[in-house]
């Protein structure tokens, strides 16, 4: 085990004004960041805007980003085209995609963000040369897509992303059911959506409820056990090439 689990929650979020050039307030919390991890993560974050709130349109040139909608009703704009989104929608935005999010409902709009370094950016940070890869989706490659993770609970993001993110899952466990997770050659991040339970790694246990996230650095492992009312969580799995050498 190289390093311990990284645990986050939604307590005491920051209040931010003017996200990506707009007016109005939002709430934000960083759940995990690149420090302490070996893969090409930039950050795992939670964000929230009130009714009528906007996260302004912007472009990423060094990171790829996914949004997973947790609550509320929104309108996601991708390169000028609007898409209605709500709980369970997964939005993948590749390099250079102009994107923004507006709350069009009468309750708060909350979402999870997983931001990942592009291969070129990761290579620069490592001080190594880089040959730009081609996404593995072949002729079906697109630069952004809106999916429903509740209808398709496992997604391969490589039709959009060029980096090492390999799987995105919506996991549902029945009461008492367990799942073993091992960060051998990969790193995991989990965000609890419904129900309760616990994650255990060695002698350490983490109670799981809505809003609790657990990120597994390379070389760690844990057992997730659902409580009496079951457990549901979002999971992203990122490959760590070369054993995580820095």
Per CATH, what is the topology of the largest domain?
Answer: Jelly Rolls
Tell me the total number of β-strands: 19
How many domains in all?
2
What shape does the CA trace take? globular
In CATH, what is the homologous superfamily of the largest domain?
Answer: Jelly Rolls
Largest sheet: 8 strands, antiparallel
Mean pLDDT: 91
Provide the gyration radius in Å.
18 Å
Low-confidence stretches: 134-141
Q: Indicate the structural class.
A: mainly beta
Number of helices: 1
Distance between the termini: 17 Å
Give the helix level as a range of percent.
Answer: under 10%
Query: What is the CATH domain class of the largest domain?
Result: Mainly Beta
Q: What CATH architecture of the largest domain do you see? A: Sandwich
Order of helices and strands: EEEEEEEEEEEHEEEEEEEE
Structure summarized in a few sentences:
The protein is mainly beta.
Which features would summarize this protein structure in a list?
246 residues; Jelly Rolls; 2 domains; eight-stranded antiparallel sheet; seven-stranded antiparallel sheet; globular
Architecture overview:
- With 246 residues, this protein is mainly beta.
- The protein folds into 2 domains: 12-163, Jelly Rolls, CATH 2.60.120; 169-244, Sandwich (Jelly Rolls).
- 3% of the residues lie in helices and 55% in strands.
- The chain has one helix at 119-126, and strands spanning 6-8, 14-17, 25-33, 41-49, 54-59, 63-71, 74-78, 81-85, 89-93, 98-103, 109-117, 144-148, 154-155, 165-173, 178-182, 186-201, 204-208, 213-216, 221-239.
- Strands 1, 13, 14, 15, 16, 17, 18 and 19 form an 8-stranded antiparallel β-sheet that branches. A 7-stranded antiparallel β-sheet has the order 2-3-4-11-6-9-12.
- A hairpin with a 7-residue loop joins strand 2 (14-17) and strand 3.
- The chain is globular.
- The protein starts with 5 loop residues before the first strand and ends in a 7-residue tail after the last strand.
């Amino acid at each position: 085990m190289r390093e311990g689990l990284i645990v986050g929650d939604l307590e005491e979020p920051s209040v931010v004004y003017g996200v990506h050039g707009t007016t109005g307030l939002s709430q934000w919390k960083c759940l995990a960041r690149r420090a302490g991890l070996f893969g090409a993560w930039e950050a795992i974050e939670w964000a929230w805007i009130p009714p009528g709130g906007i996260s302004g349109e912007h472009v990423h040139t060094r990171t790829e980003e996914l949004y997973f909608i947790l609550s509320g009703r929104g309108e996601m704009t991708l390169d000028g085209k609007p898409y209605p989104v709500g709980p369970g929608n997964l939005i993948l935005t590749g390099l250079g995609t102009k994107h923004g999010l507006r709350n069009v409902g009468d309750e708060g709009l909350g979402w999870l963000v997983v931001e990942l370094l592009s291969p070129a950016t990761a290579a620069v940070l490592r001080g190594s040369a880089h040959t730009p890869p081609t996404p593995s989706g072949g002729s079906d490659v697109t630069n952004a897509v809106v999916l429903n993770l509740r209808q398709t609970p496992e997604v391969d993001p490589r039709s959009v992303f060029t980096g090492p993110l390999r799987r995105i899952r919506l996991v549902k466990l029945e009461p008492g059911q367990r799942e073993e997770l091992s960060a051998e050659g990969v790193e995991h991040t989990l965000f609890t959506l419904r129900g309760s339970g616990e994650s255990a790694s060695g002698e350490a246990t983490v109670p799981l409820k809505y809003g609790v996230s657990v990120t597994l650095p390379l070389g760690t492992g844990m057992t997730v056990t659902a409580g009496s009312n079951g457990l549901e969580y979002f999971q992203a799995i990122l490959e760590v090439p070369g054993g995580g050498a820095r």
